[in-house]
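Contributing new records

If you add data, match the layout below exactly. Sequence lines come first and carry their own label; structure lines follow with theirs. Keep one chain per record. Anything else will be rejected by the validation script.
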Amino acid sequence: MPRITPERREARRAQIVAAARRCFSRDGFHQTSMPDIATEAGVSAGAAYRYFANKEEIILTIAEDAFRLVFAPVQQLAATTDHASPAELVAASLDALSTETIIDPAGAEVPVEELLRCGVQSWSELLRNETVRTRAVEGFQGMLASITDALRRGQAAGAVPVAVDPERGARAVMALLHGCLLQRVGFGLTNTAGIAADIQMLLGSTHAPPREEGPEARHVES
């Protein structure tokens, strides 16, 4: 029997991932079995196991694809400019969420809605699957570090208020991104460009609240 070429192997793997993505998006992770995925992909049940040890590996692959779509533009902007504002970091992600399809590494067209539905579902796995949680925490901490560094450089360039704590600010940016993702999937947020503009106006027109003073700094004038 001739050996399968690397190109053919990658194409078959992508075929199985695409089938799993459709199943997960439609029926959910726990209502989908490996035989279901194989049937959707048009391969034998045994063929799926030649590419993935179990369903968990496929879930991780698709979840990472989903969050790469959301966060890679933010990370790229954070790495390539010294004057990114929080609103600009959020807008970079919302631009990616506004598209209908993307092209995966294998050259296949992927519906963004399908991918994001899988990403949101993966959050529930953080509460029950330690492997998924560990990978998610690693990715989250990496993004926080990138955004924190971008905010520090933004402060030096005058694009970020000096009163903002960069680490807390990074968590605020991530909270906006997660919230927009959830609204996009669960609550019909389609006008992501409009939301990005509103965030720009809100963040651009507000001033940082005064820092709370400790007891030792307070005094009463006589």
